[in-house]
Structures are given as structure tokens and as C-alpha cells.
Design brief:
The complex is a heterodimer of chains A (about 375) and B (about 250). With about 375 residues, chain A is of the alpha+beta class. In chain A, the strands form 4 sheets. An 8-stranded mixed beta sheet of chain A has the order 3-2-8-9-10-11-1-12, with helices on both faces. In chain A, helix 8 packs across helix 13. In chain B, helix 3 links the parallel strand 3 and strand 4. Chain B is globular. In chain B, about 45% of the residues are buried. Classes of the chains: A alpha+beta (about 375), B alpha/beta (about 250). At the A-B interface, strand 5, helix 10, strand 13 and strand 14 of A face helix 2, helix 6, helix 7, helix 8 and helix 10 of B. Bound molecules: iron/sulfur cluster (SF4) (4 copies). The site of one iron/sulfur cluster has 11 residues of chain A, from helix 10. Chain B: Pfam families: Oxidored_q6. Chain B: Keywords: Oxidoreductase. Chain B: This is Coenzyme F420-reducing hydrogenase, gamma subunit.
């Protein structure tokens, strides 16, 4: 639902003021920046670190950053780092215990960051992914304290998508390219007729920050240009999920011959689950020190692509690659729905771009759908 | 206090050096462990049995094959260190060649040599409790193993691919972003994905991961410009015999 208030127009240099306003309010800004040839999310000190003039071309198993002349800041998608890295970190301490000189034991809970994050320039699918993590990690009976300590009080500046990548399919998942909810400020980058941003508040905190930035009321033309840019983006999206209920497709495909086919290509490397902004699985381990006086219970990202991940009494239960790929895809598109009442996939395309083998979840879904049609009497 | 012994077979000494390389932790290790046999560090040699033996190197002579059995008998826990001890090392290149021909090409008096035709891992001769992979091993994994044995728990030694660690430390994938060949998807984690962190592909020094897909990795390497010969050489750098099956070699 678009806010009824008149959007504001911010100049190209207004991002510096946004960074200052957020830092003044105690936020640690996390935003896109170019590192090692990719646009990654990282803690940023200034707007000067934003990837001004960089786009990314993606395809299955391929990502290339590309220089552009127009200075666009948010014209990139599907970078390898998502907001998950900050709110659900790759490694975290759940508790620690120390033996004191008098023999007693003292314990401490999870490490909590002394930071409040402001995500700047994440895309609408990333907000949807945060919504999924909110449901999974904080929406149940036992909210995860590591997650809530990082996620509570975050500030989100979403950049609506005007240049989707070839790997994006948010339109199939209903998550983009327009921003509809879950943000404090939404901005739309406009390039034709001068580099500027249309901005609207999505929360009282967002409206307050927006009021602190140099801006003018957006004219009808700017608003229309922003709407048109996002509509063009929607039309430019070239990848799609089959147009049918995906949980039913996954259930019907349990014995599909397609699993053996994808298993011949899949490296079980785990990259897809690691880059996925909603995959939340972890394993825990005890880390002791040499003196035996200090121990930590740590958890780290894990993945259904590892053999040990399905280790139960007596051995792992998902030994074949086919069973592991099927677990990943059935969870993302099917069983997540039963478990959490939503899709586990938001259509960001990261798993497609960052799979070294170029395995494409939309193509696999289409193949399953086609195989089922062949099976039909 | 547990007793620790360090043994060397055919190897370069790099792995046992990792123990001395634990600079910051070395005193703490020395405080918890009685070093009973470690010729690289001390001339003092105590008789067995030993609680923990760390074994470096591969078996390349008949005398070695005898010695490793004696070490096994004298050790409660036996941990092998590195690509040589776990897979025969670079010297296992001889396994698919003629060792007599090699010897005559290298040595003025090959008749002075008394060597086996193959270089084999320790596990081909005796039971091994834990294997620390790598060329050389990772110092963190060594400390983790010693610490775990002190505490009486299982060491945390992952068997999944390097890619897991690569993503956990936010590296940008060199394959996807730069078209560089990388053995990470089929290689066992444990190094912390150092090579990709410095912008180059993994060269597989930790040996194969738990379930490597050799043909799919070969397709990937070919797609990024490697010839069949390049691929064979890449797999044959550090853990020739361990990767033989992954690489599709008969040897
Ligand atoms: S499954 Fe793939 S496309 Fe869907 S949210 Fe995860 S990474 Fe993005
Ligand atoms: S797809 Fe796999 S890694 Fe991702 S949430 Fe599901 S089980 Fe976990
Ligand atoms: S689908 Fe791709 S990224 Fe995922 S485990 Fe298989 S090869 Fe790796
Ligand atoms: S750089 Fe290599 S190890 Fe890292 S994710 Fe890519 S393929 Fe895996």
C-alpha cells in the first residue's frame, strides 16, 4: 500500500545526508559496496562507499560487475551477501561457561551486538526475506535471542528495483520490484532528467528521518516517472516460476526422474543455501580452550547439502545428492508453506547466480512441472 | 596431563612445524601436554606408551611400514597430519609410474635406495583415529583436536566442501564472479577458504570432501577454460591418490 503522504524528492547528494542522519541516530549503516568484483552488503562509514556507477550482469552460475556512466547507485541485484549475514550471522555464540578458581561455574548467554543496523539500499525481495526470517526465527514460541538482538530496532531503507537482473523472479513470488511494506523509507532511483531519488516514509521513524534530509515535495512528473521505472522493471523480469501452486507441484514430484538429472550436475557444495537470504539452518558445536576452564556453545550456518547435516543415530539419512537437492527445493517451495505459512523462496535469484554449476531453481521447477504433465493420464 | 608424541615419515616437516607455529598457544599447550617425543622441538625422548601420537608423512619403505605398526601399538589415539599421511602426498605420483625409472633419473647411485614402489597413507597400514587434512594442516584444526582430546570430546572437523566456509566468511566466489577454476566444491573444508579469500581458486590441498561429484566438477573446470591435461594436473598437485577417483583416474 503506497503511503498517502506526498513523496519527497532528494538530490543525488542527499544520500550523504541520509548516512549522517542515520549515524546521528546511533545506527550502524549496512549497504551495498563494490568488493572483489561484486556488490556486497557491508558496514559502511559513508555514502562515498556506495557502488556509484556499478551494475551487475548475472546469469546462472555467473556474476559480472559492470561500469556504467550514469552514476546509478542501486542498479544491481543478487549480490552474494544478503541481510541474513547481519541478523543471523554465520557464526554466533549461544552461551559460554567458565570455571572459577573456587570451583564454581559461571555462565553467560549469547553475545549481543552493541550495534543497531540500518540497512540502506536493500531491495524489496530482501525485505520479504527479512519477513521470512522474522517468522522463522522470531515468530514462534521460542524467539531466537541471537536473531532478535540484531533484528529488533533495525531501520530499513529499501531501494525499489528499476534494473532487475536476468536471474530475478520476484514477480512470480509476489515480492517485487515495488516496495509495499516492511520498510522505514522507500526510495526509487531516477536517472532520466537528472540523478535523483523519490522517497517516501513507511513508518514514523522513517518519516522522521526523511524530514531531516534536504528534500522538496516530489512533483507529479517525478512520481509518475518512479512508477513507470518500477513498472518497466516488472516487465523486464525474464525468469518465472511455473504458474501453479508450488507446494502441490513439489508433493506430486516426490518420485520425479528429474532429481537424478539435477543430481548429476549438483556439486553438493552448499553455495545455494549459504547465499539464500532465507535459509536459516545451523549446527552447533562446543568450543573449549586448552585449559579446560572455558567453554563456548557456538552455532554456525549449515546446509541440507552436507552429509553430516542429516546425521541421525546410525548415520546420515540423506546420502544421495538427489535426496539433498530434493530436500532443498521441496523445503523452499513446498514444506516451508506448511511449516511457516509462507514461501521459503522470495525470488531473489541468488542461488541461481552463485551456483558454480549454474543450476537454476526456476528451470528445475519448470522441468518438474513438465514431467508431471507427461505423467498425467 | 597427557603425553604427546610426534612422528615423521616421508614428508617435508611442514605439518609438524604447524605445532611449533602455534606461537600464541604454544605455552598453553606445553602446560597441558607432556611432550614425550618431538625431535623437531626437543632431543628429549621419553619411552611409550603415549596418549596421543601425531603422525606426519607417508609410508614409502619397508622399514616405515614396520615402524608405524610399533607406533600404533604404543599409542592410545593416533592422529595423522596432512596430505602425505592421509593420502600419500605428492610422492604418491610414483604410484602410477615406474619408481625404478624415477630413481635412475634422479640419483647417481639408485642402488643405494631401498624404497617401496608406492607411497601410501598411514591408514593403509594401521587404524587411524582422526585425520587432519591439508598441505600443510591448519593450525586451528590441530589446536582444536588437541583441545578436544584434552576435554574428552569429539573434535569439530567438517567433511563438507570448502564453499561452505568460503560463503561463511563472505568471500566473493572466484568461479562465479571471475571465471577462475576452483576445486572448492569438491574439496574438504578446514582451511577456512584461504585461497579464494585471496582471489584464487582452491587447489584441493585438503583432499576430497565427503561426497564429491567428480564429473560435475570436471564440467565446471572445462567451462572455465581448463583442458583435460590442466584438470589432471590440478588434481595431481597435493593429494594425487585421494583425488584419483574424483578425477576419474584409473590409478
Ligand atoms: S531459493 Fe534462491 S531465489 Fe529463492 S530466495 Fe533463496 S536464493 Fe533467492
Ligand atoms: S533448504 Fe536446506 S538449508 Fe535451507 S532452510 Fe531448508 S533445510 Fe535448511
Ligand atoms: S545446486 Fe548448485 S549451489 Fe546448490 S549445492 Fe548444488 S551445485 Fe552447489
Ligand atoms: S571460490 Fe571456490 S570455494 Fe569459494 S564458493 Fe566459489 S567455488 Fe566454492
Amino acid at each position: 500500500m503506497r503511503s498517502e503522504e506526498t513523496p519527497r524528492l532528494i538530490g543525488a547528494d542527499g544520500l550523504g545526508a541520509l548516512f549522517t542522519a542515520l549515524r546521528d541516530r546511533g545506527y550502524t549503516v549496512v549497504g551495498p559496496t563494490l568488493r572483489d568484483g561484486a556488490v556486497v552488503l557491508a558496514e559502511l562509514d559513508s555514502a562515498g562507499q556506495l557502488p556509484s556507477g556499478w551494475s551487475a550482469d548475472t546469469e546462472a552460475g555467473r556474476y559480472r560487475s559492470r561500469r556504467r556512466e550514469d552514476g546509478a547507485v542501486f542498479a544491481h541485484c543478487a549480490g552474494p551477501v544478503s541481510a541474513k549475514t547481519f541478523v543471523h550471522p554465520p557464526r554466533a555464540r549461544l552461551w559460554s561457561a567458565d570455571r572459577n578458581p573456587d570451583g564454581s561455574v559461571s555462565a553467560a548467554g549469547p553475545d549481543a551486538p552493541a550495534k543497531r543496523f540500518a540497512f540502506v539500499g536493500v531491495h524489496p525481495c530482501d525485505i520479504a526475506a527479512l519477513g521470512v526470517l522474522d517468522r522463522v526465527l522470531a515468530g514462534g514460541e521460542h524467539p531466537d535471542p541471537v536473531y532478535t538482538a540484531r533484528r529488533d530496532g533495525t531501520f530499513v531503507v529499501v531501494a525499489e528495483c528499476t534494473e532487475p537482473a536476468a536471474t530475478c523472479f520476484c514477480t512470480s513470488m509476489g515480492t517485487g520490484p515495488a516496495a509495499t511494506a516492511g520498510f522505514d523509507i522507500a526510495i526509487t532511483e531516477l536517472l532520466d532528467g537528472g540523478h535523483r531519488f523519490l522517497a517516501r516514509g513507511g513508518s514514523p521513524a522513517g518519516t522522521e528521518v526523511l524530514a531531516a534530509l534536504p528534500s522538496v515535495p516530489a512533483g507529479a512528473e517525478d512520481t509518475a516517472a518512479a512508477t513507470a521505472a518500477v513498472e518497466r522493471a516488472a516487465a523486464a523480469i525474464s525468469r518465472h516460476m511455473p504458474d501453479e501452486p508450488l507446494p502441490a507441484l513439489m508433493t506430486a514430484s516426490r518420485e520425479s526422474p528429474r532429481w537424478a538429472d539435477v543430481a548429476s550436475r549438483c556439486l553438493t557444495c552448499g553455495n545455494c543455501t549459504m547465499v539464500c537470504p532465507t535459509c536459516f539452518c545451523t549446527s552447533t558445536e562446543d568450543v573449549t580452550d586448552l585449559t579446560g576452564q572455558h567453554t563456548e556453545h557456538q552455532r554456525h550456518w549449515d546446509s541440507c547439502f552436507s552429509l553430516d547435516f542429516s546425521y541421525l543415530h546410525g548415520g546420515p539419512v540423506r546420502t544421495s545428492t538427489a535426496s539433498r537437492y530434493r530436500q532443498w527445493m521441496s523445503h523452499k517451495l513446498g514444506t516451508w508453506q506448511e511449516q511457516f505459512g509462507m514461501s521459503g523462496c522470495v525470488g531473489c535469484g541468488r542461488c541461481i547466480a552463485w551456483c558454480p554449476a549454474g543450476i537454476d531453481i526456476t528451470e528445475e521447477a519448470a522441468a518438474l512441472a513438465a514431467a508431471r504433465l507427461e505423467d498425467a493420464p | 596431563m597427557i603425553t604427546l608424541a610426534v612422528w615423521k615419515f616421508a614428508s617435508c616437516d611442514g605439518c609438524q612445524l604447524s605445532l611449533l607455529d602455534c606461537e600464541d598457544e604454544l605455552l598453553a599447550v606445553a602446560g597441558q601436554v607432556r611432550i614425550a617425543h618431538f625431535l623437531e622441538a626437543s632431543r628429549e625422548v621419553l619411552p611409550g606408551p603415549y596418549d596421543v601420537s601425531l603422525v606426519e608423512g607417508s609410508i614409502t619403505t619397508a622399514a616405515d611400514a614396520e615402524r608405524i605398526r610399533a607406533i600404533r601399538d604404543a599409542s592410545r589415539v593416533l592422529v595423522t597430519l596432512g596430505a602425505c599421511a592421509n593420502a600419500g602426498g605428492i610422492q604418491a605420483l610414483r604410484n602410477s609410474a615406474d619408481v625404478a625409472e624415477y630413481a635412475s633419473a634422479v640419483y647417481a647411485r639408485p642402488d643405494y635406495l631401498d624404497t617401496l614402489a608406492t607411497s601410501t597413507p598411514i591408514a593403509a597400514h594401521v587404524d587411524v583415529d582422526y585425520e587432519l587434512h591439508g598441505c600443510p594442516i591448519d593450525k586451528g584444526q590441530l589446536l582444536e583436536t588437541i583441545t578436544a582430546l584434552l576435554a574428552g570430546r569429539k573434535p569439530n572437523l567438517p567433511a563438507h566442501s570448502v564453499c561452505f566456509d568460503c560463503k561463511r566468511r563472505n568471500n566473493v566466489c572466484v568461479v562465479v564472479a571471475h571465471g577462475e577454476p576452483c576445486l572448492g566444491p569438491v574439496t574438504r573444508a578446514g582451511c577456512g577458504a584461504i585461497c579464494p579469500a585471496f582471489g584464487r581458486g582452491c587447489f584441493g590441498c585438503f583432499g576430497p570432501a565427503e561426497t564429491p561429484n567428480g564429473p560435475a566438477e570436471a564440467d565446471l573446470l572445462r567451462a572455465h577454460g581448463m583442458s583435460g591435461d590442466d584438470i589432471r594436473r590440478l588434481y595431481r598437485t597435493f593429494t594425487v591418490s585421494a583425488f584419483a577417483e574424483v578425477a576419474g583416474d584409473a590409478s
